[in-house]
Design brief:
The chain has helices at residues 43-49, 92-95, 136-139, 142-158, 175-186, 199-207, 236-245, 266-271, 284-296, 313-322, and strands at residues 2-8, 11-16, 24-25, 29-40, 60-61, 65-70, 79-82, 85-86, 106-107, 119-123, 127-129, 167-171, 191-195, 212-214, 226-231, 246-254, 275-278, 306-309, 330-333. By secondary structure, it is of the alpha/beta class. The protein folds into two domains: 2-141 and 305-333, Alpha-Beta Complex (Quinone Oxidoreductase, Chain A, domain 1); 146-278, Rossmann fold, CATH 3.40.50. The longest helix has 17 residues, at 142-158.
């Protein structure tokens, strides 16, 4: 089958790869074969592409934000979103509703082949049916939307006041950052600013009409100005900026994993009783909720999505690296899908 394979730093190439085989996993259950209709390029795929993720070792088929058609198993024939996070289903975290923290978790496109391919094998229980009539490219946004929704739901629980009363700031105009801003707006936040250095992405975020896009370098970010700050970048620079932007008694939600550099002002967090919390991926419930919101229009018309063929994958990675696209998300479509 055709696949887009990460083979070396800053190199992804179209290759012929072996067909996936459905298998049985003692913890994850029976696997099925899915024909990929649409798959998004994630920031973590870019980290791997740059050689910044030691967990993703080339040669490897990346990609975990996917939707497709089930070819085998009891639900053969349905269209489904793939929950890429594979867990044991039996530990305390899984049974307690926090399967995203399972110590045995795996992820397609990390230790096992991902979805930048014509077909993939994945546990049957990791499938979510796509609503009738929904575009597969929109359905492929479920994973980043669920990541943002999980984070904002956590913010709603931890903030000392309702989000409808909070001034909010999001760092990062990729899909997770934009979905976080849209989710905060859905909660009724009176101010939602999105800080993004790429002018093309700022214009895209502004066009949604749901947030105010700012250039943190040229415009600056208001110190002590926000009850809730979402860091969807996760760099030393954005952690430092979040530490300065949050109000006393406020909340920083940290999603991004760009680097592990210092930056968080722990002295200020302590003296001003700021809550800092890391948030990782999502649960199956979050995935379902995100899929429903995408289908119902809760995140807008998604006109900012860019679609390309799988064959255009190498150019898409290069364009994302060089900041040449306004799209917060590029979705690749295998030939003929």
């Amino acid at each position: 089958m055709k696949a887009l394979v990460y083979t070396a730093n800053e190199v992804v190439e179209i290759r012929e790869e072996p067909e996936p085989g459905a298998r049985h996993d003692a913890s994850a259950g029976d696997e099925v074969i899915v024909a990929i209709d649409a798959v998004g390029i994630c920031g973590s795929d870019m980290h791997a592409y740059l050689g910044h993720d030691e967990r993703r070792v080339p040669p490897l088929i990346l990609g975990h934000e996917a939707a497709g058609r089930v070819l085998s198993g009891p639900r053969a024939g349905i269209r489904a979103v793939l929950n890429p996070l594979i867990n044991c289903g039996a530990c305390d975290d899984c049974l307690g509703g926090r399967a995203n923290l399972c110590a045995e978790r795996d992820l397609i496109g990390m230790y096992r082949p991902g979805a930048f391919a014509e077909r993939i094998s994945i546990p049957e229980r990791n499938l979510l049916p796509i609503p009738d009539g929904m575009d597969a490219a929109h359905a492929a946004l479920t994973e980043p939307a669920a990541t943002a929704l999980h984070a904002v739901n956590l913010a709603a629980k931890l903030a000392h006041r309702a989000l409808a009363e909070c001034r909010c700031l999001v760092f990062g105009g990729g899909s997770v950052g934009l979905f976080a801003a849209l989710a905060l707006a859905n909660h009724g936040a009176p101010v939602v600013q999105l800080a993004e250095t790429n002018a093309l992405r700022r214009a895209t975020a502004q066009s949604t009409g749901r947030c105010q896009a700012i250039d943190p370098l040229a415009d600056g970010v208001e110190d002590n100005g926000f009850h809730v700050v979402v860091d969807a970048v996760g760099s030393g620079v954005t952690r430092a900026a979040a530490s300065a932007a949050v109000r006393p008694g406020g909340l920083i939600i940290h999603i991004g994993l760009q680097d592990g550099e210092a930056g968080l002002d722990t002295r200020r967090l302590t003296l001003q009783e700021v809550i800092f919390v890391g948030t990782y991926t999502y649960t199956q419930v979050d995935m379902g909720a995100a899929l429903r919101q995408l289908h119902s229009g809760g995140f807008g018309d998604l006109a900012w999505l860019e679609q390309r063929s799988l064959d255009e994958g190498p150019a898409a990675f290069a364009d994302l690296l060089k900041g040449r696209t306004a799209a917060p998300k590029i979705v690749l479509r295998p030939a003929g899908q």
